[in-house]
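User: Please predict the structure of the protein below. I'd like the answer in structure-token form so I can feed it into my own downstream comparison script.

Assistant: Understood. Taking the following sequence of 211 residues as input:
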Amino acid sequence: MSTNDLIDKLCDDAKPVKEICCPFQRAFGWFFFALLCVSVGTAVSGIDLTGWQKDPLWFAIETAMLVLIALLSACGAFLLSIPCRGKSILTKIIPVIPLLLWALLLIIQMSLEPKQPISALASHGAGCVTGLLVLAIIPGIVLFIMIHRAAPVKLGWTGLLGLVAALAVASSGLQFLCPLRSAAHLMMWHLLPIVIIGSLGIWLGKRFLRW
């Protein structure tokens, strides 16, 4: 078989490829779907507005931070899922900025609050982590499926940002379930689980995002 015949045969056998939508369009589409899932899960679990009533301003700021973390992380994950996009280091760094800012605000608030005993910090901890995981399951699975349909190359980073996005949007719903508003509790049971569990996204990305 000549080279030209081989090329013709390969062209005939090739299947049409559907073009991937804009990464930002996919990210926002996923975000609104995730927000819907989290809203339903929160409503079913029973909304608790104690946190809003205690400090409406801080509650709103923290929720906005989580939404920003989720959106930026999702955008970064979808950008990295396309080989020709997401080459800038900013794609990986920008989602970290609101997370660090949230941590800084919590540290400042912790310094102003009276110290709490360990037993008080442990209160509701397991429930918050469980709620976070339950709310993040469906958005996380859908996000990984959407990313897998592209052609991610940097699997670890893509998985990391994807899982952080799912956990952050879940944590925004957790705001309406958790009655505790101390900075120490938020640091230990709301922020740190996003960082620790989110780091597993590196392994999940390398394991499930291969194409």
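That's the full token string. The two ends are 30 Å apart (CA to CA).
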